[in-house]
Amino acid sequence: MSQLRSKAPELLTDLTEHIAVALCELVAMEAGKAEHVAKEVTERMAAHWGGQNVYFPMGQSVQLSRRDRQIYDGFNGTNHSELARQYGVSLQWIYKIVKAVRKEEIATRQGDMFGPVDEE
User: Fold this and answer.
1) How far apart (Å, rounded) are the C-alpha atoms in residues 60 and 75?
2) What is the helix (H) or strand (E) element at residue 73, kind and residue range?
3) 60-89 pLDDT, tens digit each
4) Three-class DSSP labels, 4-36
5) Exposure b/e, 13-27, CB count within 10 A at least 16 = b
6) 65 and 41: one domain?
């Protein structure tokens, strides 16, 4: 348990940094202001969930980041290597992303074959 507590400040610092970067990238917030907002969000999350073990699920739809969507949208069936170089990831990672996004696309379009059936 003491090891978990010693990691807590590191977790909060990391969370603050990620929030600040996201604010700068996503809404073009000025770095100083983004840092202030990020600290405030982190403090509120710590006050609300402090002392609890929090699990962040990694569901299929959550894993599909904007970058993954861009990679998939740029995929033409033969440009795996080009995309790997462009995005700085391995060739295997490109295959994995294309497969995951394709699977998500198919699931979204098809729906559940074994879901509830309306009986008349």
Assistant:
1) 19
2) helix 66-74
3) 555 567 888 899 999 999 999 999 999 888
4) HHHHHHHHHHHHHHHHHHHHHHHHCCCHHHHHH
5) eebbeebbeebbeee
6) no
Amino acid at the residue 13? T
Q: Specify the number of domains making up the chain.
A: 2
With a CB cutoff of 8 Å and minimum separation 6, the contacts of 104 are 60, 61, 64
For 5-22, write each residue's pLDDT tens digit: 456 688 899 999 999 999
Q: Which residues, including other chains, have CB under 8 Å from residue 31's CB and lie 6 or more apart?
A: 20, 24
Q: Are residues 65 and 87 in the same domain?
A: yes
With bands split at pLDDT 50, 70 and 90, how would you rate the model's confidence at 35?
A: very high
Give the type of residue at 20. Answer: A
